[in-house]
Amino acid sequence: MIEREIDLISLLEKSLGEQPIEKLEEVGTVVKVGDGICKIYGLSNAVFGELITFERGSKGIILDMDEDYVSVVLIDNQYPVIEQDIARRSGSVLSVPVGEKLIGRVVSSMGQPLDALGKIDFEKMAPVEQVVPGIIDRSPINKSLETGITVIDTLFPIGRGQRELIIGNRTTGKTTLLLDTILHQKNQNVICIYVSIGHKQSDTAKIIHTLEANGALEYSLVVDADAKETALNQYLAPYVGCAIGEYFMNKGKDVLIIYDDLSKHAIAYRELSLLLRRPPGREAYPGDIFYIHSRLLERAGKLVTGGSLTALPVIQTQGDDISAYIPTNLISITDGQIFFDTNLFNSGIKPAVSIGLSVSRVGRAAQTKAIGKMAGALKLELAQYMELQAFSQFGSELDKASQRSIERGKRAIELLKQEERETYSFVDQVLFLFLLNENFLDTLETNHVKKFAVQFSQYFKGAYADVYNNILTTEMVSDSTTASLKKAAGEFSTIFTNE
Fold first, then answer.
1. 409 and 429 assigned to the same domain
2. Does a structural domain hold residue 104?
3. Residue 141 and residue 183 in one domain
4. Which residues have a Cβ under 8 Å from the Cβ of 361 and sit 6 or more positions away?
5. Are 333 and 161 in contact (CB under 8 A)?
6. Are residues 139 and 248 in the same domain?
7. Are residues 65 and 198 in the same domain?
8. 336 and 457 inside one domain
């Protein structure tokens, strides 16, 4: 009896002592496999978005949960998964490598290198899905993100931390404008991330070549999930790009991220949802299609600590229809949209930005005072020009004031045209608008307007370098500066030749 008591005491001491207890794992069994989707029974404590590992080495993500089983989408099919295989919870969500060494690289939606430049030396692994900063952690958007595109910087300014939708039909110049915006960020202390979703591999290669040829890869990186990738990779790509961008933002840096395009992203998610047997809604999209884009774009913003993440999502329309399901979703999420009009593009107005349908809800807060002063009435004048031009097509005779508005509008349109790979600083844009406002362009032929403006900015930068630099540093146009501008414009008008 005494021996039995001693044995019980020793057992209790052992169990209550600091002895290591074997770690318990929650495992499940694959009950069904097909189309890259696995149904697993037994993972009753698993959470949505958790990473699941299989006994043969494959991995997957939980994207649907039922009462009895979870549905896992396989990340890769390198190692086959068959029924009755064992699946284990990882206890973590999908993470990707982040760090300074990613700049200049081309990576997949899993963070793997695609540029044959060797292994990426990353600093840490960051979860793809993260909690967005709260209102207290955010700062009002008050600093301009200069795109170098005159029509955007003057009429629809984009601020650092803003979400501005780029929308229009295919082949209307959306990607070209975005590439020019990336190229313009050279020496602007902005890190650029281009997320390619569902593009042809050749198109993505051309974009990467353009960035490399112009030295833009020194401050940029590309996340590529082209058309040959699985629907899951295309779905994950923008979240991966955003996670990388947040790493730099949290370090106090300004980041520009481009999602090109979210139409294909929505299609990839629709494909996944239908494979997961979710009930289809409008246009066969699942009910949470709005949520997947809103939780992505809400991660953009400007932090009190100084960093910012500016998001430029792209949406492709059909037949200029901006009232379709996905476009209206994105319009309601973002802080404005820049609409590319097919008719303007076909008539030779490039960039083909529609003045009437485009808007920036941040407005003058994200614009330098110099441009704000010069561009004050430009939008109204262009709206009047469009209206009068439509009226004059009926053959009606117009009074002199209306004729003058049409002539002035023509010159304004010419001034806003820009060739591919041609960007201007905000000081050059101020000079362009000054010439228009002070009527120095009225006597010129329409086809000479842009040439006059560009050459004048070059002349002013050389002959009046101190005034030019003053505008650059103060971002303002004082009365003395205006006097110098008038003097310089008068001088240049006498020496300008049309040849």
1. yes
2. yes
3. yes
4. 335, 336
5. no
6. yes
7. no
8. no
Decide: 493 and 440 in contact? Cβ < 8 Å. Answer: yes
Query: Quick check: 442 pLDDT over 70?
Result: yes
Supply the pTM of this predicted model: 0.90
Catalytic residue check, 404: no
At how many degrees (to 10) do helices 449-463 and 479-495 cross?
Answer: 120
Q: Which of 92, 114, 148 is the last residue of a domain?
A: 92
Residue 24 has pLDDT above 70, yes or no: no
DSSP 400: H
Amino acid identity, position 24: L
Tell whether 149 is covered by a domain. Answer: yes
Clarify whether residues 325 and 217 are in a common domain.
Answer: yes
Q: 88, 138, 278, 361: which is the annotated catalytic residue?
A: 361
Which residues form the domain of 176? 97-367
pLDDT in tens, 79-111: 888 898 999 998 888 899 999 999 999 999 988
DSSP annotation string for 13-66: HHHHSSPPPPPP--EEEEEEEETTEEEEES-TT--TTEEEEETTS-EEEEEEE-
Between CA 445 and CA 349 the distance in angstroms is 17
Exposed / middle / buried, residue 498 (Cβ in 10 Å: 0-12, 13-18, 19+): exposed
Backbone phi, psi, residue 351, to 5°: -65, 140
Q: What confidence score (pLDDT) does residue 329 get? A: 95
The H-assigned helical ranges of 185-253 are 201-213, 231-250
